[in-house]
């Protein structure tokens, strides 16, 4: 009788452990299914983005400097964001993103899901979203139009 009691207790402990493992395995399976679906969604988004395109006319101008995008027979690299149709000379965008904006740009990069070296690569963040109407532009709304120090300096400058 004593052996049966010990075996019964061991059996109950084993059954409880197996039930616990079963629920953990089930949760892991659900997590794997979610991760698989997320990977499929990302791949579909990537394919959709790869197939986006836009048209540039011969007279189209840079949305920052207003000079023709195709100046010098198209020798100056430019970026076009098909989702919003904004287009810029690459050097105009680089000028827009000054060193004071880099911290804000990295913050936007994190929001866009960039990580590691890609996050510190200005071009990767810049190319990920339109600086004129995307997250970067929205983040700049809070910036003052001009720096108070610059304004004070201009007041006292002798021309």
TrEMBL record:
Q: Which GO terms describe its cellular component?
A: endosome; HOPS complex
Q: Is the Metal-binding keyword given for this protein? A: yes
Cite a single GO BP annotation. endosome organization
Is the Zinc-finger keyword given for this protein?
A: yes
> Which molecular-function annotations from GO does this UniProt entry contain?
protein-macromolecule adaptor activity; zinc ion binding
- InterPro entries for the chain: Znf_RING, Znf_RING/FYVE/PHD
Q: RING-type domain location, by residue?
A: 62-133
Tell me the keywords, alphabetical order. Answer: Coiled coil, Metal-binding, Zinc, Zinc-finger
Q: Which residues form a coiled coil?
A: 18-52
PANTHER family, alphabetized: VACUOLAR PROTEIN SORTING-ASSOCIATED PROTEIN (PTHR23323), VACUOLAR PROTEIN SORTING-ASSOCIATED PROTEIN 18 HOMOLOG (PTHR23323:SF26)
Q: What is the name attached to this protein's record? A: RING-type domain-containing protein
Tell me which species this is from. Answer: Neobodo designis (Flagellated protozoan)
């Amino acid at each position: 009788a004593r052996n049966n009691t010990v075996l019964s207790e061991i059996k109950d402990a084993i059954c409880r452990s197996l039930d616990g493992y079963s629920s953990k395995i089930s949760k892991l399976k659900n997590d794997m299914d979610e991760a698989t679906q997320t990977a499929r969604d990302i791949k579909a988004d990537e394919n959709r983005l790869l197939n986006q395109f836009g048209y540039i006319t011969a007279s189209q101008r840079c949305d920052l400097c207003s000079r023709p995008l195709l100046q010098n027979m198209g020798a100056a690299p430019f970026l076009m964001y098909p989702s919003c149709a904004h287009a810029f000379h690459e050097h105009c965008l680089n000028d827009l993103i000054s060193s004071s904006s880099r911290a804000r740009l990295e913050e936007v990069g994190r929001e866009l899901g960039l990580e590691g070296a890609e996050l510190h690569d200005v071009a990767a963040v810049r190319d990920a979203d339109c600086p004129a109407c995307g997250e970067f532009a929205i983040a700049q709304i809070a910036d003052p139009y001009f720096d108070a120090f610059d304004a004070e300096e201009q007041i006292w400058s002798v021309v």
